[in-house]
């Protein structure tokens, strides 16, 4: 069994991952409404991935003979000012998630919980990858500015993402 502190912080992370899924679905719906179907599809796949992260954490608690305490998921924001706004918000959110994952690693180190430390390493690498993906999209959006052809091509490219 894991400590009460680690149990609590992982339960909080489960909530954060499920909230991320809600937030990304909100972003997906927003971009779908303005006709950026490729961006919307990319975000919908990302939402599924975040829910999978939450489930992975949940399964970890159960495997460690600990308990799961599901918390209420807050309502995500829905109003954005275009695709760059969406991805800037997404990037800031991913940085918060990375920080939360690092807090789990820090606590696991403090408590000499090697199993949790080993488990959370996957999330640290995943967060590094996710931040980089989003930052790459933002950089391209900033370069293209208001160029509708470039935005169309990028939308078409992102539509090709597979789960």
What does this structure look like?
This protein has helices at 4-33, 37-63, 83-110, 114-144, 148-158. By secondary structure, the chain is mainly α.
Structural class: mainly alpha
* CATH fold assignment: Ferritin
Helix count from the secondary structure assignment: 5
What fraction strand? under 5%
Helix content estimate: over 70%
Overall mean pLDDT score?
95
Overall geometry: elongated
Broad CATH class: Mainly Alpha
Features:
Ferritin; 5 helices; 163 residues
What is this entry, summarized?
The chain has 163 residues and is mainly alpha-helical.
Write the layout of secondary structure elements.
Layout: H1 4-33, H2 37-63, H3 83-110, H4 114-144, H5 148-158
């Amino acid at each position: 069994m894991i400590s009460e502190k680690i149990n609590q912080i992982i339960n909080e992370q489960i909530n954060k991952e499920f909230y991320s899924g809600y937030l990304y679905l909100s972003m997906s719906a927003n971009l779908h409404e303005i006709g950026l179907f490729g961006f919307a599809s990319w975000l919908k796949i990302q939402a599924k991935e975040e829910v999978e992260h939450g489930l992975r954490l949940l399964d970890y608690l159960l495997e460690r003979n600990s308990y799961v305490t599901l918390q209420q998921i807050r309502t995500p924001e829905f109003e954005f000012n275009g695709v760059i706004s969406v991805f800037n918000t997404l990037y800031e959110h991913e940085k918060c998630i990375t920080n939360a994952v690092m807090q789990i690693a820090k606590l696991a180190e403090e408590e000499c919980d090697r199993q949790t430390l080993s488990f959370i390493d996957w999330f640290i690498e995943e967060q590094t990858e996710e931040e980089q993906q989003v930052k790459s999209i933002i950089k391209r959006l900033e370069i293209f500015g208001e160029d509708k052809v470039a935005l169309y091509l990028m939308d078409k490219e992102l539509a090709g993402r597979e789960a």
